[in-house]
Amino acid sequence: MGIAYLGETKVGSRDTVEIEFTMPTGVKRQFYFDLSSHLLLKESGATGGRYAEEILYDDYRPENAISIAHKTRTAPRRNEIYNIVVNQISVNQSIGERVFDFPIKSQVRLPDLKQLFKEIDANQKVGGQNKGELHGSALQRKKRNMTAPGKSRKWSARSTPFFYLNGEEISTLVGEDGKPLSAEKQAKQNDITKKRIEEIQRKQSKKEEKEEKAREEGKDEKGQ
């Protein structure tokens, strides 16, 4: 990794020093540090080689003697700006995976599986409200097949609705090349998806049992 000093510049009304990092792949990213506090105020860099993403940091406050930004303004893509306000910060605390789940208000709940398979069996196109229920839209995943020299290349399309369960993607193939699967092929795909769901649910159940046991053992030790 290469690091270069690019000089002093302004971020808003504040004086900063600009440092540029160059990754082994050639990707460059700029970091702007406040001259007086040395805190990071801004970082930027091209995403996908086209659009320059910017992240601004503000409202630094001490948390366990560590200065942490409580406000962030980010523009990950063109015409998109997100203002993030942090209400609570814990330093060096144990955090369960569920903490990182999407808030319930914005999270799409797991669909009713019987209804899901019924829709898949009927090979209905996923659209409108159904897209939200599946936590995603029907994907067209195109794959190029190489043919003999001198012949044109062919493309195949796979239609795959998907949703997320415990952070893992679950998808089901419902069509190929613009046509629904046959009843036999669809039944096999549905069986694969069902087994995948059951596997994830078993893993989650074992994990929760293990965590509960650890909590109980911790209580016993404290009681002694």
The whole-number mean of residue pLDDT values reads 76
Instruction: For the record, give the distance between the C-alpha atoms at the N and C termini, rounded to a whole number.
Output: 52 Å
Secondary structure class reads: alpha+beta
Number of domains: 2
Strand content: 35-45%
Any idea what the shape is? flat
Number of DSSP helical runs: 3
Question: Rounded to an integer, what's the Rg over CA atoms?
Answer: 25 Å
Total count of strands: 13
- Trace the largest sheet across and list its strands: 1-2-3-4-5-6-7
Helix-strand sequence: EEEEEEEHHEEEEEEH
The stretches of 5 or more residues where confidence is low (pLDDT under 50) are 123-139
Helix content: 10-25%
Largest sheet: 7 strands, antiparallel
Mind explaining what this structure looks like?
This protein is an alpha+beta fold. Helix content is 25%, strand content 39%. It contains three helices and 13 strands. A hairpin with a 2-residue loop joins β12 and β13 (179-180). The longest helix is centred in the C-terminal third of the chain and has 41 residues, at 183-223.
